Amino acid sequence: MGRTRRRRNKKKARDFCACDDQEEIILLNSWLSKHGMRYNDKLHLAVFQETGRGVLTKKKIRSGEELMNLPLNLTINVTTILLDNLFCNIFFENSKRCLVEYKQSISFQSLMAFYLAFLRFQSDNTKWHIYLESLPKDYSVPYFLPNDVKLNIDSDILSVISKQKDIIDSSYSIFENVLLSNVSVHNTIRDFKKNFSLADYEWAYFTVNTRCVFMDLTKVIDLKNVENSIITLINDNTKISLCPYLDMINHSPNARNETKLLVSKNIENVNINSLSEDLFSDVQFSIYTKNDFDPYTQVFICYGDSHNLKLITEYGFFLPANDLDYVSFTFEEVTLFLKTKTIKLSQDQLSFINNHGLSKDLYIDSKGLSYNFYGLLLVVKYYYDQSTDVSRLIYSAAICSNDNNLNDIVAPMVRDKLLSIKESLNKLSNVNKCVILNNCVELMCQYVRILEKFIKC
How many other β-carbons are positioned within 10 Å of the β-carbon of residue 297? Predict the structure, then answer.
């Protein structure tokens, strides 16, 4: 019996390697415990073949169990920034009226990234040093691909990279100008001013981008009257946070979890002028799983339902067989194609399309044409057909979106796109592969499968 069991265990090749004994992990665990983190003692850090570093459970975990519980002051969030007077003085001790000149000019993610770069620069002079040292040194997002490789990447991926670059470049320029006009005599700020670089900021930006979790603190602090704080700089909300250890749990679309902010009754709508680190020592951020996990398997949480374009460009990984994937087409792309087929949309048709929102969300997925794409083609084909009520057809499109007559209209355009993607894949086959490029290639191959299925239907 024992020998048989040993044979069975031997056959089950483990796809992970425990890493709790690594020096940086020992330091991280000690630091977390010292600052009051409480996590399930079944959990251990490990490196997995498929996903890299993640969290392993050595014992059965059942739905409803708490995975971890962090004091609010052990997370980097809006209160952390507001309480850091040295960082705030970058904007306050300044020859410019920064809060006026740059009012609502940046996202909170950008401000978080600037703050993270500032913390990292201080090395072991900040409480966050051990946590920062545990973070990845680089990220597997397409933003970091060489420019010559990007030439053959799919246009959808390039579009996301372009938007990311615009945000990073514009916010970096603002922070660079703020530092240049800073008049502080504090050595840390003066040295940071000399050393802050685009590379530092890009690392910080994608650290926030890939590792932040949703955290709503609006019931805890009052962010309505913030005219004299650096929160006036941001143009969105402050509902993201960096959570040590939690950010090491990998994503699965099948995972279900729930986060809770456990707040004492006497801590509510605190004015930002009354903030103190001790005030939030009793506020806990907790996460529970709604899944069962067997012993010696990886524990997952869900970052939200996402298609692979978002997963590879925002987080740096690809999920095979993702039903949410689709191939997008722009309205300009479609109308230009129609003109080559001597189909020119009239002003009435264009007005109808715009009024019904049919110029957006044009894509093909594994099920066929999107609702809007189908509706657009109905306008192309039937708008001037007096025997057809186009509006009624559009509203019934959800249940009859497999009209081959409509598919045939755009089939040549789809074939052209398919051919273009295949040509790009052929060129990329001669490029040295890396994780980033592999993800892009996987997504482009997924696009090929979607378009080939559409053409065959």
Answer: 16
The reply to whether 349 and 381 lie within a common domain is yes
Taking all residues of the chain, what is their mean pLDDT, rounded to a whole number?
A: 90
State yes or no: pLDDT of 340 exceeds 80: yes
Same domain assignment for residues 343 and 213: no
CA dist., res. 278 & res. 341, Å (int): 69
C-alpha 148/C-alpha 86 separation (Å) is 41
Q: Do 297 and 156 sit in the same domain of this protein?
A: yes
Q: Cα–Cα distances in Å, from 362 out to 286, 288, 401, 444, 448?
A: 39, 37, 13, 18, 17
What's the confidence (pLDDT) of residue 305? 82
Q: How many independent structural domains does the chain possess?
A: 2
Q: Are 271 and 222 in contact (CB under 8 A)?
A: yes
Judgement on whether residues 124 and 196 belong to the same structural domain of the protein: yes
Cβ-based neighbour number of residue 69 at 10 Å: 18
Residue 7 lies in a domain: no
Helix (H) or strand (E) holding 66, with range, is strand 66-71
The residue type found at 264 is S
Mean pLDDT of 226-250: 91
Could you list the residue range(s) of the whole structural domain that residue 290 is in?
66-315
Per residue in 398-418, is it b (16+ CB within 10 Å) or e — as a string? eeebebeebbebbeebbeebb
One domain, residues 298 and 435: no
Percent of the chain scoring above 90 in pLDDT: 69
DSSP letters spanning 289-312: E-S-B-TTEEEEE---S--HHHII
- Residue 254 CB neighbours (<10 A): 8
Boundary (domain end) residue, out of 265, 292, 315? 315
Q: Residue 40 domain-assigned?
A: no
Give the model's confidence band at 8: pLDDT under 50 very low, under 70 low, under 90 confident, else very high.
very low
The whole-number average pLDDT for the span 365-380 is 92
d(CA 440, CA 142): 7
26 in a structural domain:
no
- The percentage of the chain sitting over the pLDDT mark of 70, rounded to a whole number, equals 95
In a domain, 54, yes or no: no
* Last-in-domain residue among 315, 345, 363: 315
State the residue for tokens 């650290």: 207
Segment 30-46, tens digit of pLDDT: 999 998 888 888 999 88
